[in-house]
Design a protein that fits this description.
Layout lengths: L18 E6 L31 H5 L7 E11 L4 H10 L3 E15 L6 E11 L14 E3 L10 H10 L5 E4 L9 E3 L1 H4 L8
Parallel strand pairs: 1-2, 1-6, 3-5, 6-7
Antiparallel strand pairs: 2-4, 3-4
């Protein structure tokens, strides 16, 4: 992806394949807002310090519907301030809102304007029917895992999706690494050699 000033985002091309499971962690735009821990604490970071962020309007232009199978699921990470935008984005990508798939307890708090932020949600959207055959049906919603580097999601969530849908074709959008059994798409994953994983 690239962005200069108010220029539109130019995304790398999506694979010319169809997937039944799409897993995405969009680089939500915070309009330059940085995290802080209170008066006098200084700047403790923010998404814009770690990677190019993307506006909702630009995210909507990514043609995810073109790579989604007739019967497919979208697992979409949403930061709490972007919950409404995430639901809007899932629909713009051609899916219907279903429910919250996972709640990640980061075991550590972040400052917040209302309450201390400790959890992040992974939503699930559906297109057509739930892909068959199904795998495990006893997967827990709550994931308790220590927060790692900025924005990195616990591998356990990907592993739980694999357990639920072991036979389906899978892609991870905005991925940081290449995981076995997954097609990886994103700036960081595209810079990793092909023999490093899925």
């Amino acid at each position: 992806m690239s962005c200069t000033g108010n220029a539109r985002i130019v995304f790398p091309e999506l694979p010319k394949r169809i997937f039944q499971i799409i897993y995405a962690d969009p680089p939500w735009d915070y309009k330059g807002q940085l995290q802080h821990a209170g008066p006098g604490s200084g700047d403790s970071g923010g998404a814009v310090r770690h990677y190019p962020t993307v506006t909702l309007d630009d995210l909507k232009t990514l043609p995810v519907a073109d790579i989604a199978a007739e019967n497919s699921l979208l697992f979409l990470w949403a930061t709490n301030p972007h919950l409404d935008q995430a639901i809007d984005l899932g629909k713009a990508w051609g899916f219907n809102w279903a429910t919250v798939a996972f709640v990640w307890d980061k075991q550590k708090t972040n400052p917040g304007f209302y309450t201390l932020s400790q959890c992040e949600l992974c939503l699930v959207f559906k297109r057509g029917r739930i892909p068959q055959p199904r795998g495990a049906r006893n997967i827990r919603q709550l994931v308790s895992a220590k927060r790692g580097p900025h924005s990195e999601k616990p591998a356990e969530v990907r592993e739980r999706i694999e357990a639920m849908f072991p036979a389906q074709s899978k892609i991870e959008l905005f991925s940081r690494e290449r995981a076995p059994g997954w097609t990886a798409w994103g700036l960081e994953a595209l810079s990793v050699p092909m023999n490093a994983g899925g």
